[in-house]
Amino acid sequence: MTARRLRASLKGWGGVGAMALALVVTAVFALLLPLSSARGDGSTGTGGQGVGQGIQARADTCADPQNQSPSPSSDDSGKTITAIKQRGYLSVGVDQNSYRWGYRDPNNTAKSSDLEGFDIDLAHEIAREILGDPNAVRFHAIPTNQRIPAIKSGQVDMVVRTMTITCSRIKDVAFSAPYFLTGQQVLAPKTSDIKGYDKTLAGKRICSAAGSTAFDKLSADKKAGALASSADIATTVPNQLDCLVRLQLGQVDAVVTDGALAASQAAQDPTVELKGKTFTEDYYGVAMKLGADDLVRRVNQVLVDYRKSGGWQASYTKWLSATLKADSPSATPPTAHYK
């Protein structure tokens, strides 16, 4: 698609078009400034250093990684939590480019500097329970492929950024119990002959985020012959929203990402749609440093309370229900099982 055709396709979109263009611009800046300075008012930045002691990862075997988190606890006396309380704020890695998950709404002039969305609500809730103040949090805009490095280096205490719990990742970071259920799905133009994650992807250029479960799935399936050998999966980007930009510019034919994220992108751009059904089962978790068990247990208790209070459902209704179908498995929080 040429730049002229792209502009033409955006005409008449009103607020939705403005949102898509604004997030495209934001995505470009996010590539240049993945970790910029932050203030307690919700703006992004490096802020203080994360805390928690690292330990040698040990995960020789893995089954149901979403069920490997320790049981919840309300104990605030652990070393990691004590250090956070002494510092006075929670340092959280988030996305600032994912519509309805973690983003800045250019149409919200009253709060134009604030991040908002489903993941942002959860981060505020964690800060409220641990520190007694939902605004005692400093956000750091982190690309998809920098989530684990940001945790391991101590730049953040945790990442709340549509991060899927996987067997490979639990070797590097500790996860909370799952707070969201989704699955990988294909996003493509409405006029495309792509039908889903099937033989119609043959000869197509597919975009995914580097370091994402989508890219891992594409790579594994292509090696195993489960994905057409002619499918081109070479296009990877730091942030998954950049794939939507590539799709709009005609540089790729399809995007593979989490279905919940793809639904939000389809809401931004009425010329694209979800193709076929989800073809994996993925659980999002809050990621923290290995060895910070006191913080992991405390976050798990926050999630228990968040579900019971109705806070999770209220946030889902506000941000995600409009872009996901009523019968979506994402419509209720996943049941937690602990190791």
Number of strands: 14
Main sheet summary: 5 strands, mixed
Strand content: 15-25%
Residue runs with pLDDT of under 50 for 5 or more positions: 1-59
- Which overall shape is indicated by the principal axes computed on the Cα atoms? globular
| Backbone structural class | alpha/beta
Largest sheet, order of strands side by side? 4-1-5-14-6
Alpha plus pi helix count: 10
Spell out the helices and strands N to C.
HHHEEEHEHEEEEEHEHEHEEEHH
The mean pLDDT is: 85
Radius of gyration: 19 Å
What oligomeric state is this?
single chain
Helix content: 25-40%
Describe the structure using short key phrases.
339 residues, alpha/beta, five-stranded mixed sheet, 14 strands, 33% helix, globular
Protein described:
Helices cover 33% and strands 16% of the residues. The chain has helices spanning 3-10, 15-32, 79-87, 118-131, 147-152, 213-224, 241-248, 259-268, 293-309, 311-319, and strands at residues 90-94, 97-98, 102-103, 137-141, 158-159, 173-175, 180-182, 184-189, 205-209, 232-237, 254-258, 272-275, 282-284, 287-289. Strand 2 and strand 3 (102-103) form a beta hairpin. Helix 4 (118-131) crosses helix 9 (293-309). The protein is globular, with a radius of gyration of 19 Å. Mean pLDDT is 85; it is low at 1-59.
